Amino acid sequence: MSLRLSTVILPYRRWHEGGRSSWQRAEELGFHTAYTYDHLSWRSFRDGPWFGAIPTLTAAAGVTEQMRLGTLVTSPNFRHPVTLAKELISLDDISSGRITLGIGAGGNGFDATVLGQEAWTPKERADRFGEFLPLLDRLLTEGAVTERGTFYAAEEARNIPGCVQQPRLPFAVAATGPRGLRLAARYGQAWVTTGDPKLYETGTPEQSLEATRGQVGQLDKACAELGRDLAELDKILLTGFTPDRNRPLESVDAFVEFAGRHRELGFTEIVIHWPIPDSDFTADQAVFERIATEALKQLD
Question: Model-level pTM?
Answer without folding.
Answer: 0.97
